[in-house]
HNH endonuclease (Streptacidiphilus jeojiensis), 166 residues
Amino acid sequence: MRNTLVLNASYEPLSTVSLQRAVVLVLQDKAVVEHAHPLRRVRAASVDLPLPRVVRLRRYVRVPFRQRAPWSRRGVLVRDGFRCAYCGRRATTVDHVLPRSRGGGDTWLNTVAACAADNHRKADRTPEQAGMVLLATPFEPTPEASLMLALGADQDDLPDWLPLPA
Ligand SMILES: [Zn+2]
């Protein structure tokens, strides 16, 4: 699980790493803990520190290019705020706008959050064929937002000053 956010020295989100990797960065003095889990701690032989959720590199790292956001089902649900793209109610599933059986892929632009009922109703059809209307156009999150998406369910305990997913 890559669920610890790494910030550049300039506080820009840079990447996500495993908890183990984050702890190593801190122990090697390459990063400082900017935000820790309120209760949990990392304890090992000679280590006892608050469980880091966000670490910041001490030295600025020049980033030559921005990677594109990797697609994930969870990322689609978070991007869409867990709201069904067809009815606006709570979504727990991901719908392929152009069904996979018709060549639709696992991409940001082809997937939306959907409630189970609408996903079932739409089935193996396009929205037009099913007579359903998308309430919003799917979009590709920025790389920065995708880092936040990658952090998953524990976003609630992240600090306020971090940029939120677009
Ligand atoms: Zn729905």
